[in-house]
Amino acid sequence: MPNGGPEIEQLIQLLARLPGLGPRSARRAVLHLIKRKEQLMIPLSAALDRAVAAVRTCEVCGNVDTASPCSICADPRRGESGILIVVEDVADLWALERAGVGNVRYHVLGGVLSPLDGIGPDDLHLDGLIERAPAYGEIVLAMNATVEGQTTAHYITDRLAGTGIKITRLAHGVPVGGELDYLDEGTLSQALKARTAL
Amino acid sequence: MPNGGPEIEQLIQLLARLPGLGPRSARRAVLHLIKRKEQLMIPLSAALDRAVAAVRTCEVCGNVDTASPCSICADPRRGESGILIVVEDVADLWALERAGVGNVRYHVLGGVLSPLDGIGPDDLHLDGLIERAPAYGEIVLAMNATVEGQTTAHYITDRLAGTGIKITRLAHGVPVGGELDYLDEGTLSQALKARTAL
Questions:
Q1: Its Gene Ontology biological processes (chains A, B) (predicted)?
Q2: Domain spanning B5-54: which superfamily?
Q3: What is residue B1's predicted lDDT score, i.e. its pLDDT?
């Protein structure tokens, strides 16, 4: 047992399964933890325990929170805008919240349609979306700009056809701070088509 | 609380303090954990608890293990070679063990001399080394090839002068798999000086 006993070895192996950490960086992380037992390792252990006990998935929107309905679904001001943003994943919801998009609500699909991976409409939280949609004035489809994301957006548009609900998608264009030279042709051509007056 | 409650926010902040993880990757890691609550989050929490309880620093060599003296110091075969390898850090000990250097023992200094950072001889585990050294036939100074590492090696050589113990250091040279073109001049010149017959 070169790396100091089975307890340490197991901790390394579990940490190595986190995204962004491999076996080598997990080993460094564990040493870092052991050296900072009081300041970091014990608080992290306690924080994990608390999160395991507290975290649940919102049964309305699919967000991850410590309450269900989550704080966004429970906040009446969030409903006033009448905007429901559909995202693939909780990470996308968090990203939009960090961007400060305002008083909106979300619906987390939990993935995208991907026939090659065997992921069909029944594997996503689509029924909940169809049920919630009529309560909102506008559905923003904020899927990733990938083939699967756009396929999923088309599918949802078809499902909501005839309901009269306004359906929009995020704008394509030049990322803020981005350089034209490094952009792909598709983005550039979309950015030109959607040009706005100054 | 955009990211789902104080428990989640705190877990993100603690994970972000690990080397190799920043705020963004810590957030991804926490979502990864939450999605794999049974398979990863709960086992990780338990592994941390066990490690917190079990891990201690070996009072002989400074290695991190679940026993003190550690498994290396307690293994009589490790003493037979008469070789004691001095390293800066436990990570270096682990690296040498992974390299399979054989039946050797170690001494972890816990750092290097660095006057600019206020780290002097009293801040390192040097007295223990001076005490242990006479029991070994050879002391290998395996400090990093940095200015501080080499300063520390010189200091140890001075402290052990007159004891008659053989003191060696790791070879400098071309890393296995390395390309000459990418090597610095110092390494290349050392590699040429230390060339070996084929």
A1: DNA recombination; DNA repair
A2: RecR Domain 1 (1.10.8.420)
A3: 45
Fold of A64-169: Dna Topoisomerase Vi A Subunit; Chain: A, domain 2 (3.40.1360)
The domain ranges of chain B are 5-54, 79-169
**CATH tag for B79-169 (out of 3.20.20.370, 1.10.10.10, 3.40.50.300, 3.40.1360.10):** 3.40.1360.10
Residues in chain B closer than 8 A to A37 (CB atoms): 52, 55
Whole-angstrom Cα distance, residue B108 to residue B126? 9
Q: How far is A42 from chain B (nearest CA, A)?
A: 7
Question: A127 burial class (0-12, 13-18, 19+ CB within 10 angstroms)?
Answer: exposed
Q: Is B50 on the interface with A (CB under 8 A)?
A: yes
Q: What distance in Å separates the CA atoms of residue A132 and residue A126, rounded to the nearest whole number? A: 10
Whole-number Å distance between alpha carbons of B169 and B157: 10
**pLDDT tens string B11-70:** 999 999 999 898 889 999 999 999 899 999 999 999 999 999 999 999 999 999 988 899
Element (DSSP H or E) covering residue A41:
none
Burial (CB < 10 A; 0-12, 13-18, 19+), residue A139, is buried
Whole-number pLDDT of residue A1:
45
Integer Cα distance of B49 and A38 in angstroms: 13
At residue B176's C-alpha, the angle toward residues B174 and B178, to 5°, is 65
Residue A2's pLDDT is what? 53
| Interchain pair B94, A27: CB under 8 A | yes
Name the average pLDDT for chain A: 90
Helix axes B42-54, A23-35, angle to 10 degrees: 50
Q: Which amino acid is at B171?
A: A
A165 and A139 Cβ atoms separated by less than 8 Å: yes
Contact B55 A98 (CB under 8 A): no
Q: pLDDT for B115-133, tens place per residue?
A: 899 999 999 999 999 999 9
pLDDT higher than 90, residue A132: yes
Range with lowest mean pLDDT among A139-153, A176-190, B119-133, B161-175: A176-190
